Amino acid sequence: MFDLERWQEIFDTIRKNKLRTFLTGLSVASGIFILVILLGFGQGMQNGIDNEFKGDAATSIWVWPQRTTMEYKGLNPGRRIQLRNENYETVSKIFDQDFEKASVLYFPNDVQVVYNNDLLVYNVAGTNGDLQVIENEFLSEGRYINEKDVRENAKVAVISNKIKREVFSNLETPVGEYIMISGAGFKIVGVYGEYGRNESEEERIFIPVTTAQLAFNGADKINNLNFMLPEMDSFEETVAMNDTFTTKLLEYLKLYHGVAPEDDRAIRLYNPIQEAKRFYTLGKAIELFFWAVGFLTLIAGVVSVSNIMLIVVKERTREIGIRKALGAKPWSIVGMIMHEAIFVTAVAGCTGLIFSMALLEFVGPNIEVDYVMNPSVDFNVALSTVILLIFAGAIAGFFPAWKAVNVQVIEALRDD
């Protein structure tokens, strides 16, 4: 039931002690403000990490050969390892249950790309259709390299949006045009784009890997093996599956090419999930630290509310004694003190919440810092924090109120 007289008492007390009430509310509002801002920046770090790794599939793996650094079974160090089609076929057959997509890359040497008698300075790479998914590319026009192209050694090419802008800007679409690669005509069948900010990834022209090997004396050589593993129910399961697959893959390749098991430089492997693991672990630790700092700040605000309520009880001891002498119920006195504590906490908490959410809303999208992107916080989480704070404020007001109830009437009336 709404008690007008009680609210009048609360506002009278606040008016009489404006500075004290303001400073108490400021400490509470600051606690909520700091907590929400810290949580927002924690989410901003998560967004930044996601953005750094969104250029490629998170569970993708790239493998490429280098030189051996150790003697092994009579073979001298310094040998250059060369991946072969057989490696791709064997891995695809043996480990086909472990990955979702697999592709290869072959980079022919000394090729020239010409369009309308203009020499184009772009890289040419032979591949198959799965590379699009593994590298998280999107199609702007036409289609990508497919298995039929690979099987039939088709002379088709897929260019990037960047190449389209720089070379074919005067055309509505480059699809259907022909480019000359070392004297051979290749029909453009599609245009792709790269997610993320690395525009250098759009300087490649893709052709079927079999065509590249056959037309440019590549024999059965390949430069990269690429895989995309499935995502499991949890990040930890995904990491564990990733570790198992890469271990088996490296064991096979080292055995096939006569590489010492402990030689980690002969066959190199880039595994974004491991990079992501380090960043996510760091992000979780920072988020936990933010929660701890914010929570301690809130505790400081609640303690200040409790201290102020103790002062209020001390100042109103004589008044409380008179109320008890006139027959006031204990819980009415408790309610009087708690209402003031809850009111101050609620107003201050909501104020801190509004200012912090407004700051994140207007400033967050404009923040451009490495690994921090669009700091924000879930409103439900922030509101839940305020509700928890109000509950804590009620507890902070209860103990001084209970102390007031237990004061003997005679002692309260004697109080100055």
Automatic annotation (TrEMBL):
It comes from the Bacteria. Residues 21-239 form the MacB-like periplasmic core domain. The chain crosses the membrane at residues 21-41, 288-313, 333-359, 379-399. It is found in: Cell membrane. Residues 292-407 form the ABC3 transporter permease C-terminal domain. GO terms for cellular component: plasma membrane. One of its GO terms (molecular function) is transmembrane transporter activity. Keywords: Cell membrane, Membrane, Transmembrane, Transmembrane helix. The keyword Membrane applies. InterPro entries: ABC3_permease_C, MacB_PCD, Macrolide_Exporter_MacB. Its main location: membrane. It is a multi-pass membrane protein. Pfam families: FtsX (PF02687), MacB_PCD (PF12704). Belongs to the ABC-4 integral membrane protein family. PANTHER family: ABC TRANSPORTER PERMEASE YTRF, MEMBRANE COMPONENT OF TRANSPORTER-RELATED. This is FtsX-like permease family protein.
